[in-house]
Amino acid sequence: MNAAVSQSASPVELKPRPEAQAVPEPQTKATPALSFDGVTKRFANRTATPFTAVEGLSFDIAPGEFVSIVGPSGCGKSTVLNMTAGLDRPTEGRVALNGEAVTGPNVHVGFMLQKDLLLPWRSILRNVEFGLEARPIGKAERRERALRELARCRLQDFAHHYPFQLSGGMRQRAALARTLAIQPDVVLLDEPFSALDAQTKLLLQRSFARTIHASGVTTLLITHDLSEAVAMSDRILVMSERPGRIVEEMDLDLPHRDDPIARQALPRAREAIAHLFQSLHLAEREA
Ligand SMILES: Nc1ncnc2c1ncn2[C@@H]1O[C@H](COP(=O)(O)OP(=O)(O)O)[C@@H](O)[C@H]1O
Ligand SMILES: [Mg+2]
């Protein structure tokens, strides 16, 4: 992934998104880790007309890329993640992982929520092993993988502690270790830092950035924190109020991919955040 400093005067590269247009990809491009192609999701309700949650979503995420989706509450961000994880099906269009259509829950996706969902009666190590227990993986390999991921999340000294003995930030790191232990192709993060205090949040963003980039996993982060999106992402997709559409795509060519705290302090990062503020305001007014 290219995180080199761009010499251009513009803080970001902006690509206006025409309404629901699926642009054909050149044949030479590598298969995206995740692709949405003209995806619309409607939910049935008590009225005759079904409720449209998201409409005409088309985007690709390259292997190893870190993409964030920002947008107002209720614009369909969680719906996007659910369709990626195969927990929900698109009404129209296609969601694909590594070129294969998603037809249900599958082993390619790791899903992490705001709540760590660690089992309180299991040690941190046994929590990380938990996700592997449903797989045909022997005990020894399970242990080896869990210890490796705990080390990557800098929790090796806490393997035998229980969740209640850890801080909120450490618990989220343990949850990330558990997610990465299944070796997913794509990690989905739904507001994983939103329940934490401001300083823990910054430290955890940095910790996650390091761990995720060291693992090379493709990542889709949902957040309503614009600074967080700019600090952590290679690219940001901005969604409008419902029905959720992608109204803007922002390529961030900023340094400090592994250090969101340093990145946030850059003038170009601040310009990007200011631009997103404007852009979301416009998106709200259009809806
Ligand atoms: N299973 C469902 N049935 C009916 N409506 C739903 C369902 N899931 C989500 N919605 C609606 O779809 C819209 C988008 O929801 P969601 O994806 O959770 O938004 P966000 O995560 O951006 O806040 C909301 O209006 C929500 O009420
Ligand atoms: Mg949500």
TrEMBL record:
Q: What UniProt keywords are attached to this protein's entry?
A: ATP-binding, Nucleotide-binding, Transport
One GO term in the molecular function aspect is: ATP binding
Where is the region Disordered?
A: 1-31
Domain ABC transporter stretches:
34-266
**Composition bias, Polar residues:** 1-10
InterPro entries linked: AAA+_ATPase (IPR003593), ABC_transporter-like_ATP-bd (IPR003439), ABC_transporter-like_CS (IPR017871), ABC_transporter_ATP-bind (IPR050166), P-loop_NTPase (IPR027417)
Q: Name the domain of life.
A: Bacteria
Q: To which protein family does this belong?
A: Belongs to the ABC transporter superfamily.
What name appears for this protein in its UniProt entry? ABC transporter ATP-binding protein
Q: Which organism is it from?
A: Roseomonas indoligenes
